[in-house]
Amino acid sequence: MRRRVVITGIGVVAPGGIGVKDFWSLLSEGRTATRGITFFDPSPFRSRVAAEVDFHPEEHGLGPQAVRRMDRAAQFAVTATAQAVADSGCADGLKPHRTGVTVGSAVGATMGLDQEYRVVSDGGRLHLVDHEYAVPHLYGYFVPSSFAAEVAWQVGAEGPTTVVSTGCTSGLDSVGYAAELIREASADVMIAGASDAPISPITVACFDAIKATTPRNDDPEHASRPFDGSRNGFVLGEGAAMFVLEDYERALRRGAYVYAEIAGFASRCNAFHMTGLRPDGREMAEAITAALDEARLNPDDIDYVNAHGSGTKQNDRHETAAVKRSLGEHAYRVPMSSIKSMIGHSLGAIGSIEIAACALALENNVVPPTANLHTPDPECDLDYVPCEARAWKTDAVLTVGSGFGGFPSARGDHQRQLESRPGRELRPRPGRRPRRGGRTGHPRSSDRDWGHRPERPGHAGILVGDLCRGERDRRGAPVRRLGLPGPAGRRGPGLRRRAASAEPAAPADRSHDPARPGRG
Prior knowledge:
The protein has 520 residues and is of the alpha/beta class. The chain has 13 helices and 18 strands.
């Protein structure tokens, strides 16, 4: 029998909100965290806006030696991990050889490398760099595997430890790979998520070169405008989100609070262009359909779509077409929004940050808005939840990602599910039968328009579903199920969204949960 995988802890480091409580406050209030770049002089660049994290490592338990050793992105990952482990309450029961780590990152220690190059080259004036001025930990900046190593050292994990780098879908793929390791019994607990801190001159120059970022420098707070008719590029961001994933039976035995069960995941590659997308959204639609099949959900079971929504012309048209193609007429009824409008695009980290947003949307029955959406685009004609969060009964959530490079996910299932709130009974929808049989898709050479240059290949679809089976746990509280798809031809188990507790246990501090007494 295939093991079930649940999320029992969440940690977030994001622009405008460090910690789950502040992060959700920002999203639910529709506030934006974008501003002019402050990390360096951005005046030579086309795009001079970003979503920066107000992060002070010493406030999060990182001493001077740790700060010198770790790049900013590694600091984010370690901080988010500490939050997730504390939230899960699992620290005392971890078995090192049965605990693993997966960390996603698109660009690794870019900020640290950029800073070190400027030091050892005397601000770029020296053709030959002087290694005598380099920090002793430069090698750790050079290899992205240092992120996973830092997290593993922090929690004492001696099991499978991996860095996943598949562009902007790294955060989705990292969680999916971790879930599969638990399912195949290679680990009982996985610390999984992603981190990126790319706001450096070299990264800004890269996206300037392909004109992917917005030049709206005169109004940084409203610069990120996914699906808006005046959008002209994304806003670069930074951040991290980490999760504690564990075997459901283990969570049950220790009386853990379960946010979600991972239910379905799929990813595709368009084999077409490094930064290109077909306008019909075929590859993303294939990923969504495969995810639905794996989760055994019908398109009209989806209550909310968390969009990639980067704010580029091509991506938003492509994504709109993909959702229509995969969900059919239901696409016009389901709310769909992009949190990048508020926190920018943190590259590899954003997929994991969006998983956290989906979990909180399910928990609070609130759909976060797409900020700065005022001007309709005739080609983007779905319900994008403009400007204000919306109270919305949300049981099944689809979150999608799209990444430069066209990378598919390494292994099969990303599935997430949240716990139902006390007193909130979910009933099965009548007349719905599970979809069966995944579809695979690969573009034929005759379909390739080699002269077309759209914007992003490599599509990963993650489903956070919630299917009620009318069950109750041992406390008599309602149980929620979710399903997550994996690679075509494999089916994931149902998901359960409920506190997995055999006996009442003292819960970990969850001050972000307004539904629980005693939480701030």
